[in-house]
Amino acid sequence: MNNLGKDVPIPLYYQIKARLLEAIENGQLKPGDRVMSERELTTQFGVSRMTARQALTEMESQGFLFRVQGKGTFVATPKLEQPLAGLTSFTEDMRRRGLEPAARVISAEETVAGRKVARALGVGETASIYRLERLRLAGGEPMALEVSHIPSSFVPGLLDRGPVEHSLYRVLDERYGLQLIRANQSLEAVAANPYEAEVLKVREGTPLLLLERVSRDAQDRNIEFVRSLYRGDRYRFTTELIRREDTL
Ligand code: 16G
């Protein structure tokens, strides 16, 4: 890699980042390869340690690199591409990619809806609901933190056979004959708070993608309201856009 442009109005850390990204894009650096350490970058580019650190830290929080304590910084595997169209379950999404899905139940309880959930599901604030908080993993790696809310009236005794450690959608289908076929979903960026960072195994402040979804069945009943936090460093959502005739 050649020298940085010191007279151009582009911050030095940003130029280092661009060099490394280029090397990743053109395959000089492959997933799993070790990248230069802070010290090596300092020598190679004649920058301060802080500048080198800034480049690596930013690339790490954007999911291009990962660090292993005492071993160094490595090129990460590319983000998972998740189409936004299509109402799929986490289990289905991961299996389609050949990854082993898992759910680690953080809490599972029957409780009252409360204001926000009541509004999303269109039930009374004191209506009974099941609340399931689960960490979703793919191939053992934490991917998303999911909190599902389902009115108890649709799924009586949901937790009688223990917390839902496998596919929730399968339980809804097989035990309750509920098929979710339609949903409204929003997507926004948030920063990981200390708790989210700990369970998702990211640094505090890492960008996360918050998806909120209300899923309905064929009779248009609101069955599930979910709040899912996906790791911004591991996910990339894609969508197909079609130009409508009436806008032309
Ligand atoms: C997806 C759904 C979630 C659902 C889960 C069921 C989002 C945005 N969507 O993650 O609502 O509860 O799939 O997956 O999170 P499962 O059948 O594997 O439990």
Describe this structure as you would to a colleague.
The chain is α+β, with helices and mostly antiparallel strands. It folds into 2 domains: about 10-75, Winged helix-like DNA-binding domain superfamily/Winged helix DNA-binding domain (Arc Repressor Mutant, subunit A), CATH 1.10.10.10; about 80-240, Chorismate lyase-like (Chorismate lyase, 3-Layer(aba) Sandwich). The protein has 7 helices and 10 strands. The strands form 3 sheets. The chain has a 6-stranded antiparallel beta sheet with strand order 4-5-6-9-8-7. Helix 1 (about 10-25) packs across helix 3 (about 50-60) and helix 2 (about 40-45) packs across helix 3. It is elongated. Bound molecules: 2-acetamido-2-deoxy-6-O-phosphono-alpha-D-glucopyranose. 2-acetamido-2-deoxy-6-O-phosphono-alpha-D-glucopyranose binds near residues 103, 146 and 167.
